[in-house]
Amino acid sequence: MKCFTYTVTNPVGIHARPAGLLVKAAKALDSAVTVECGGKSASAGKLIALMALGIKAGDTVSVTVEGGDEEAGFQAMKQFFQTHL
Amino acid sequence: MKAVNGTAGLNGIAIGPLRLWRRTNAHMVFASDVGPEEELRRFEAAREQAEEQLTALGDKALEKVGQDNAAIFEIHRMLLEDEDYLEAVKSVIKNRGSTAEYAVTAAGERFAAVFSAMEDVYMRARSADVKDVSSRMVDILTGTAQGALHGDEPAILVADDLSPSETIQLDKSKVLGFITRYGSSSSHTAILARTMNIPALMGVDFDDSWDGRMAVLDGVHRQVYLDPDDQLLAQMEVRRWADQERQALLLELKGKPTRTLDGREIRLCANIGTDDDVEQVLRNDAQGIGLFRSEFLYLEEDHCPTEDRQFKAYKKAARAMAGKKVVIRTMDIGADKQAAYFHVEKEKNPALGCRGIRCCLKHRDLFKGQLRAILRASAFGTVAVMFPMIIDIREVREAKALLAECRAELEAEGTAVGPLEVGIMVETPAAVMIADELAQEVEFFSIGTNDLAQYTLAIDRQNPQVVPLADPHHPAVLRMIRETVEAGHRHGCWVGICGELGADQTLSETFLRMGLDELSVAPADVLPLRQYIRGLNLREEP
């Protein structure tokens, strides 16, 4: 299991389009990706649950990558968050 | 003639007959006659059909509103693939023996409610997306055909609500604009209508008697006029015409840099007076908000606005600008703008009295409330703060110390705070004379030309006897501006103009030659100025 934290800078936070992109990126991996924020967590592959976290700009999230090729998944997610969120 | 208000407006003006449209409600039964297996199969078949429809809509949207906006329909498709959604539908079918359409409705309502209950308006608006997908599925499952959105003649559409997928299908030759009872400016429907440039008014209380009546929809002032008289019609025709002119300009200039023929670029931003004006800033494609006057918050009620009220207004602007800079000027109460609760004594000469930063530093508790609100909003976009009426370096240092105090308090409370650029208004001759020192304290200067001219020329802006003498092109004023730019640049500050002079095209070339980094003007002046500057060539001798 590998984990990183990230503070969201995308001004709209993780809603609709950014969430859609994240779901796609997470589903492309063979690891399970979990996003946690403010005591609630959701699988990064589930659009509704992810949007329901209501993550806004300035929120710090922790992202966990588990199973499969963890190292590759970890790098891919880190890259994704830095680029899109 | 009758005028009715709406809560949110978009785009310009539409004039024409009203056409009431109602969504056809699907006829739905709860209990399944065919059993869960068959209902699950029906659900899967409907889902496939819905996905096909959404793909087609996405293609249509791509053509009409571009890739970013077309993504809305991809999100809709993804909702239909969401594991939690599928799980919810299937469990209702299996455990309650219901029809697929009932299960889809129940699941849709459940997830729409999750979003409706959220604190954030953007997230709340997502419930409309869930409902849109859900009613698409129900229509497919029950074979319900919705009535045409358009009639034969062009009309203003009136409906309880329009979904994003209905909006994208609006034919602009038949739909002059639309009026809805529900909906918000954060909805995907509003985003699409904005891009498609369809005038719209939301939050309007209408009734059946409106059908077929003549109306004027004014999306800018958020009003609809029923049975307009000839005078109003004539007035509105003129405005609509001006609007169309500007729209043509917008299409031509949208997204293009404000750059002269020889390659000198300047940032073109807009000035606003309330958070509602943000709509106009976006419409006119300004590159940011160069001056957000915060006084409206202080003048709208007879008591000081709470920190939360202020935070909401600043946050709204920061979010709507989506990363583009929003410069908030702290309260410039005093002079011609008085608030009773400040208990300012009657001054003989208010222009030289307790105003701007002087008033801020005198009412520290109120000032700190504003600074805290601005700092909190900075977590939601790119925000900057500037202090008005500076004459002394000590004022800047005091204001910055208070700002640091507020930041430390918020951090200790665990409240999110973003980075915040700090600048000052340069609007007194004193500030110009010590600009070198001031520039070392801040990151930018914004020149308030109205006051700078008043104080430089010793002409009272409120005194009609001397106002004709006020020549903003006076060499003294222009030299003041030049010196400010040079001093700012010497110390790495960017320098802009946020006064009325910024929009004066006879000075644009002078300003560009001086090296100004930004002009911030009224939203309606942004595009004409961009067009003008794009035609200039600084290599040619003046």
Features:
heterodimer, A: 85 residues, alpha+beta, B: alpha/beta, eight-stranded mixed beta sheet, 19 helices, 16 strands
Topology:
The complex is a heterodimer of chains A (85) and B (542).
Chain A: E1 2-7, H1 16-27, E2 32-37, E3 40-43, H2 47-52, E4 60-66, H3 70-84
Antiparallel strand pairs in A: 1-4, 2-3, 2-4
Chain B: E1 2-5, E2 8-10, E3 13-20, H1 36-79, H2 83-96, H3 100-116, H4 121-142, E4 155-159, H5 164-168, E5 175-180, H6 188-196, E6 200-202, E7 214-218, E8 223-226, H7 230-253, E9 267-272, H8 278-283, E10 289-293, H9 295-299, H10 307-320, E11 325-329, H11 357-362, H12 364-377, E12 382-387, H13 393-413, E13 420-426, H14 429-433, H15 435-439, E14 444-447, H16 449-457, H17 475-490, E15 494-497, H18 505-514, E16 518-521, H19 526-534
Parallel strand pairs in B: 3-4, 4-5, 5-6, 9-10, 9-16, 10-11, 11-12, 12-13, 13-14, 14-15, 15-16
Antiparallel strand pairs in B: 1-8, 2-6, 3-7, 7-8
3D structure, described in words:
The complex is a heterodimer of chains A (85) and B (542). Chain A has helices spanning 16-27, 47-52, 70-84; strands at 2-7, 32-37, 40-43, 60-66. Chain A is of the alpha+beta class. Chain A has a four-stranded antiparallel beta sheet, covered by helices on one side. In chain A, helix 1 (16-27) packs antiparallel against helix 3 (70-84). The two termini of chain A are 22 Å apart. The mean pLDDT of chain A is 87. With 542 residues, chain B is an alpha/beta fold. In chain B, the strands form two sheets. An eight-stranded mixed beta sheet of chain B has the order 1-8-7-3-4-5-6-2. Chain B has an eight-stranded parallel beta barrel with strand order 9-10-11-12-13-14-15-16, surrounded by five helices. In chain B, strand 5, helix 6 (188-196) and strand 6 form a beta-alpha-beta unit. The longest helix of chain B is centred in the N-terminal third of the chain and has 44 residues, at 36-79. The chains are: A alpha+beta (85), B alpha/beta (542). The interface between A and B is medium-sized, with 22 and 36 residues.
